[in-house]
């Protein structure tokens, strides 16, 4: 049987596929806390909601 034309030796293939352990760690930034929204705080307080006795 004839060798494949573009065959890569196994050792070269494995050496090219391995990634160092330090490079496998993904570093993520600290989660960003959104700024408080200083808009209309009572936007949904339209007078339709009441307490237990309806006032």
From TrEMBL:
Residues 36-55 are annotated as: Disordered. This is Uncharacterized protein. It comes from Blastococcus aurantiacus.
